[in-house]
Amino acid sequence: MKTPIDPIITDFLTATDALAENLACSEPIVAYQNARVRLDADHQAQILLQRLGQLQSEIRASQAQGAVTQGDIERLRTLQGEVQSNPTISNYASTQQAAVAHLREINQEISQLLGIDFAALARSSGGCC
């Protein structure tokens, strides 16, 4: 025998689904997702990001041994400049920042309505993350 679902729970689930759907369709989130697809497809941008990650790892290893040189720092700055000037990477970074700002704004509005930190409810109190 099925137990009827409380109307409050039904309303809550409906509102939650609507929120998720509206967020997924919102301009900042769609722009971010599109920028991510373009970044993933841009071979040159991927190479730049791989080179940057590799150089950062090398410098961290050198730093642990106290062997970072001025040349290392200059190479890092030059490569960081190339990464920042790449239009695909730059667009991805700006759309990511806009999406995060949008989500923070939504969280703030929901938190004010509920009188609690809404995002804190979603934080894991353990587990894998």
Care to give the gist of this entry?
With 129 residues, this protein is mostly helical. Helices cover 81% and strands 0% of the residues.
Mean pLDDT: 91
**Percent range for helical residues?**
over 70%
How would the global form be characterised? elongated
How many individual β-strands?
0
Strand content: under 5%
Instruction: Determine the N-to-C terminus distance.
Output: 38 Å
Determine the structural class based on helices, strands and strand pairing. Answer: mainly alpha
Number of helices: 6
Main pleated sheet: none
Order of helices and strands: HHHHHH
Which stretches are low in confidence, meaning pLDDT under 50 for 5 or more residues running? Answer: none
Radius of gyration: 22 Å
Annotation keywords:
0% strand; 81% helix; mainly alpha; 6 helices; 129 residues
Helix/strand layout:
Elements: H1 7-25, H2 27-41, H3 43-64, H4 70-85, H5 87-114, H6 118-122
Helix pairs in contact: 2-5, 3-4
